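This section describes the prediction task in plain terms. A model, or a person checking by hand, is given the sequence of a single protein chain and must write out its three-dimensional structure as a string of tokens. No templates, partner chains or ligands are provided. The sample shown here is typical of the held-out split.
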Amino acid sequence: MSAFRSITMRSSFRAASPAIRQAGAFRSFQSGRVLQVVKENKEGNAERAQEIESAKQEELKKQKQGKNEHNDKLASESESAIRGEKHDKSIDQMQKEGAQAAQNEKKLTIHLLDRLEIWLTNLHAYLKPDLNASIARHNHHRAMQAARTNAELDYARRWDEFRRNEAMQMAHIRGAVEHARFEAREARAVRRAEEWIMGEGLVIRVGGCGGRG
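The expected answer:
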């Protein structure tokens, strides 16, 4: 019974393997897409930070050259950065920004993974009837193959039995024919002997001696 269950499970798995491979391929694609989105967001944040920093540097340069209006905040940040003042505060701010960016990235990843899980659940529910039908068709096909194989084996067994019986009958017939031929040869030999005896005029007396009459 366990062997039959194992065969049935393997058959079901082989029947379901196309749909499973398709779902697995899509899952890999979606996972890759999630990582790509996260990477793009990270790169986008880095690019935006770089653009903001470049804009600040450009404004500061124009301000120093007197080509732009004076910005106290920009000047204080630039001067403090040049003098190295408030360095610890800048590091703390950078750490907070990094932690916030990591938290946002984590939330985005969790959100995308939740959406992917919901989509895969719906996909499984959508594909389940087709999967069951495919398994049923596969099992029916295997049953038909087994029945056809059994029928072919039974036919071969019957044919071999028929050929053996036919060979035995032919051997019996050949033996009977050979025996009849042997008896016919003996009968012809006896008849020829009788004819020769009668032709020679020999008289055979039982219990005595014979002679010519």
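For orientation: The chain has one domain: 2-165.
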